[in-house]
Each structure stands twice: as C-alpha cells, then as structure tokens.
Design goal:
Organism: Alkalisalibacterium limincola
Strand content: 15-25%
Protein name: EAL domain-containing response regulator
Structural class: alpha/beta
Distance between the termini: 52 Å
Number of helices: 12
Order of helices and strands: HHEEEHHEHEHHEHEHHEHEEH
Keywords: Phosphoprotein
Bound molecules: ligand C2E, magnesium ion
GO molecular function: cyclic-guanylate-specific phosphodiesterase activity
Strand order of the largest sheet: 1-2-4-5-6-7-8-9
C-alpha cells in the first residue's frame, strides 16, 4: 500500500511531463491485484462508416483509473504487464468484459463490432487461438463480430508460432487488423502472408493530412493497397471535418478519432453514438 502511494504521487510528476519513471515502482503484485480487482477498465472509441456516417464498431482501449482521480495510460502499463508475464490474463479478462458490454449494446439495438488490441506476446503461445475463441463464445459472441488488432511492428518480428496463431484465429472467424499501418517497417511480403481482414492507417498520416501532400500520398497508397488485397480500411486519428472529407474522397471505409468521439467508459458509449452527426449532414 505504501508503494502504491509512492506510485500515485509520482504519477503526477510523470503525467506533467517529468522524467520520473513511476512505472518502475509498479510491482508485479500491484499489477496482479489490479487484474484481480478488475481495476483496469475497458473504454471504447467509436468507428464510423465514411459513406453514411453510421457508427458500426468500437475499439476497446484500456484505462487504469487511480483512486486520486488520475489515470494511467495504456502505453505505460501494457509494457509492464508484458514484462511481468501478466498480459495474457489481462487480455483475456478485458476481452471477456468487452464482449459483455457488446452484448448489452446489442440488446439495446446497437449492433457494434468490437475491436481489441492484442500484444505480440500473446501470439507467441500456440494455445492463444483456442483460448480467445472460448472466451468470446463463452460470452455469447461470434468471433466474426470481433476484430483483433495487431500492430504492424509486432508482425515484423513474427515467429512461426505467431504466424500460425494468426492463421488459426482467422480460421475461427476473428477479423485481423494491421494496427498503426505505415509506422512499423514491416515488409509487404510478410504482411501478405498473414490473413489480415483490415488495415488501420496510423494517425500520424491522418491528422493534418489535408495540408500535407506527403501524408495524402501515403493515405492514397494505403487505400489502394487495401482495396487490392480486399481489406477493410480504417483511418485513425480523424480530428477535423476536413480530415473526414479527405478520407471519404479517397474511398476509405471507416474513420476513428476525436471528431467522432473520444474513448469513453462503456456506460457513456450509447450517448456518444446518439449525439454524433457526420460533417455536412
Ligand atoms: P492504438 O491501438 O493505435 O489506439 C489508438 C490510440 O490513439 C488510442 O490511444 C486513442 O485514444 C488515440 N486516439 C484515437 N483517436 C485520436 C485522435 O483523433 N487524436 C489523437 N491525438 N489520438 C487519438 P490510447 O488509448 O492511449 O492507447 C494507446 C495504445 O495503447 C493503443 O494504440 C494500443 O496500441 C495500446 N493499447 C490500448 N489498450 C490496449 C489493450 O487492451 N491491450 C494492448 N495490448 N494494447 C492496448
Ligand atoms: Mg488499436
Ligand atoms: Mg492504432
Ligand atoms: Mg496508432
């Protein structure tokens, strides 16, 4: 408990841009306790079809709220969960809880596909495909309603095991998405060996694209590639109406970003969906 207090007071220094590595104080016990207590929360960010503005999917983004009202971001705690061998337990719990939220939305007439980020480490275990399928089906969800996002970077160092896990997940019906496309230096040859169903253009190319020819070129080439490989395509980081319109003109399928909605707790998602109006509508 003393350690936790130290982390919490330290966290503000980090959040404020200080160099103090608060995460160095997070012990394996604290992480395990946080999993057991369901202290991590699944938040959700909507994805809308550019064609008609309809919200058809959500991406689950994990959050770790602190008792003092602070919030630890996933880029800080995911690496710790990975280091301490807890990423599988974390991922399985968050997937199950996200499926439960999805089912509640479906019951309320909101049929949303669910996207979940999967760490490269989870793909190193041959049993992962069976386990993820069992979890999803255990919550009454068809794997076809779930998209697993794998960063482009983690496909680069893909072992034979991870490639076969991905293939088995696809055979079970899961969608497979290349996250942060354009940032990971993965060869197109390697990417084409994984049965992906979706490509997400990294936010670095989308945000600000209307004024930057270089970004626009990457977006157009990504969309062209996705079309030819028959992949669904999502533009990340859409913050303005101009960025929305650019993606729509280029024939991008889906948009995700603060323009449509920020990540919110499950309880707030229905009102985000109800309040959303696409640009020009
Ligand atoms: P990601 O999967 O690429 O998720 C998109 C990130 O961009 C999220 O950051 C989201 O909040 C942020 N974002 C979305 N729209 C906008 C926008 O319009 N503008 C800006 N500036 N940012 C936007 P977040 O939630 O901090 O997550 C960061 C990364 O952490 C994620 O990147 C993902 O790789 C990882 N992550 C989050 N949750 C999980 C999880 O449950 N498991 C694993 N393995 N990784 C996770
Ligand atoms: Mg993602
Ligand atoms: Mg991404
Ligand atoms: Mg990204």
């Amino acid at each position: 408990a003393g350690k936790l207090a130290a982390v919490l007071s330290n966290f503000h220094a980090v959040a404020a841009g200080g160099a103090s590595p608060a995460e160095a104080l997070v012990s394996v016990d604290m992480l395990r306790e946080a999993i057991d207590a369901e202290a991590f929360q699944p938040w959700f960010q909507p994805q809308a079809e550019l064609r008609n503005g309809k919200i058809v999917a959500v991406e689950m983004l994990a959050r770790w709220p602190q008792q003092d009202g602070g919030m630890i971001e996933p880029l800080r705690f995911i690496p710790l969960l990975e280091q301490h061998g807890l990423i599988d337990a974390f991922t399985e719990q968050m997937l199950a809880r996200s499926c439960r939220h999805r089912e509640a939305w479906v019951r309320d007439g909101l049929d949303l596909k669910l996207a979940v980020n999967i760490s490269a480490l989870c793909l190193g275990d041959a049993a992962t495909a069976d386990r993820l399928e069992a979890i999803v089906r255990g919550e009454g969800v068809d794997p076809a309603s779930v998209v697993l996002e794998i960063t482009e970077g983690s496909v680069i160092c893909g072992s034979p095991t991870s490639l076969s896990v991905l293939a088995r997940l696809r055979l079970k019906g899961f969608g497979l998405s290349i996250d942060d496309f354009g940032t990971g230096y993965a060869s197109l040859s390697r990417l084409s060996h994984v049965p992906f169903t979706e490509l997400k253009i990294d936010r670095g190319f989308v945000t600000g694209a209307p004024g930057v020819a270089r970004k626009k070129a990457v977006i157009e080439a990504s969309i062209d590639l996705a079309r030819k490989l028959d992949l669904r395509i999502v533009g990340e980081g859409v913050e303005t109406a101009e960025e929305w319109e650019l993606l729509a003109r280029c024939g991008c399928g889906l948009a995700q970003g603060y323009l449509i909605g920020r990540p919110v707790p499950a309880s707030e998602l229905p009102s985000v969906v109800a309040d959303w109006r696409r640009p020009g509508a």
